[in-house]
Amino acid sequence: AVENQSPDVVICDEISTKEEVEAARTMGMRGVRIIATVHGATLAELAHCNERGILVGGQTSVTLTDAAAAVRSDRLKNVPRRAKEPVFGAALELHEREHWIFHPCVKTVLDHYYSNELSAAESLTPGVRREVGVVPERDSFLYCGICVRSPCSSLSNCSPCRSHADVVTTPGAVEAAIRDKMGHR
Question: pLDDT per residue over 169-183, tens digit each?
Answer without folding.
Answer: 444 444 444 444 444
